[in-house]
Amino acid sequence: MSPDKEWSKPVREAVLQSLEKNGLELAGDIIQGASPNAPKGDVFRICNEMKTQNPEVVVSIGAGSSIDATKAAVAYMILDDKYPDLNDYFGTNQVTNMLEKSYRRLLPVVAVQVASGSAAHLTKYSNITDMEAQQKMLIVDDAIIPPKAVFDYRFSVSQSKNLTLDGGLDGISHCLEVFMGIPENKVKKASQVCLLGIELIITNLKKAIENPDDLEAREAIGMGTDLGGYAIMIGGTNGAHLNSFSMTDILSHGRACAIMNPYYVVFFSTAIESRLRKIGEIYKKAGYIKTNLNKFSGRDLGLAVSEGMISFSRDIGFPTKLLDVPGFNEGHLNRCLAAAKNPKLESKLKNMPVPLSVDTVDEYMAPVLYAAKTGEKSLIKDME
């Protein structure tokens, strides 16, 4: 956590009192949390400080980046003598494989969440950024799921407007992308989580921005983003999340996903018509789609739902195309396409309802990116 920040004081005091009440002692000074996007450097720093304290349990207090960095740092602290290159930890089940080969186990982590958004306190994911390359990488592993998680939604009142918006859109993206790409045999389970999560956030996000102390809205957003966390434990995110990893220098994660997803909805539309109709009804109920969705099918339905999503983004002051983002340039698109061909991020391609391979990325993902750049959806190709 950030021990000197004003927002953290009530959370810090509540945690310290709870530890003392239960007979637990601090192993040392409170360790500073991670910067936004969980830079690699923060992972190494947290790891080294934990080593000097030699704790039996790690309590991570913060938002998604701090919790993600802590999860990675705990794994690195236990394994770095045998596996010193952090890049080896990225991908799916790499940490589990290392633990099994070395006959080791991770220290337990208690994740105390303070911000509605990534749901890092619940998930098997740790997003870590190489700041030099401006590329986010991903650990996907059940071994890093915190054994205990705490989130008192009242503490999210201290979230800034931008953090509230970014976190809310990240939660929507988790639910949306999982629901679009989930295998048919898991649709029933996923729909109960994903559709409710989307509705809770869309219905309450603007309320929380207009009245930050609205506890009912804050609780709804917290529940919605937590459902997003459960969603990505059932299925996985795909295109928008993958592209967001290559835009860390110009966009927060939630904001990047919010820009990209309306364009992926059009690309995926012919493969997910029945699911898309349910998503569209949520936006229609909230007033962001005015037309009768029953008139549309296939790509036309995708275009209608996409416009509803863009209307929602406009209503809360989010950019709706990449050219609206300060600092955007063609290099970001090239970086997105290169990252999509990285084997360690292959899971995002496989999670798409229209799965892509390394060989088809340039043909089909590039038009989606260029559509997101200009806002011109006619550039998006249908996959045969």
Order of helices and strands: HHEHEHEEEEHHHHHHHHHH
Mean pLDDT across the residues is 94
Largest sheet strand order: 1-3-6
Number of helices: 14
Biggest sheet architecture = 3 strands, parallel
The CATH fourth-level homologous superfamily of the largest domain: Dehydroquinate synthase-like - alpha domain
CATH-defined fold name of the largest domain: Dehydroquinate synthase-like, alpha domain
Lay out the secondary structure:
Elements: H1 9-21, H2 40-53, E1 58-62, H3 64-79, E2 91-92, H4 94-102, E3 109-113, E4 125-130, E5 135-140, E6 148-151, H5 161-181, H6 187-210, H7 215-234, H8 239-244, H9 253-268, H10 273-285, H11 298-315, H12 330-340, H13 346-350, H14 361-374
Parallel strand pairs: 1-3, 2-5, 3-6
Antiparallel strand pairs: 4-5
Helix pairs in contact: 2-3, 5-6, 5-7, 5-9, 6-7, 6-10, 9-11, 9-14, 10-11, 12-14
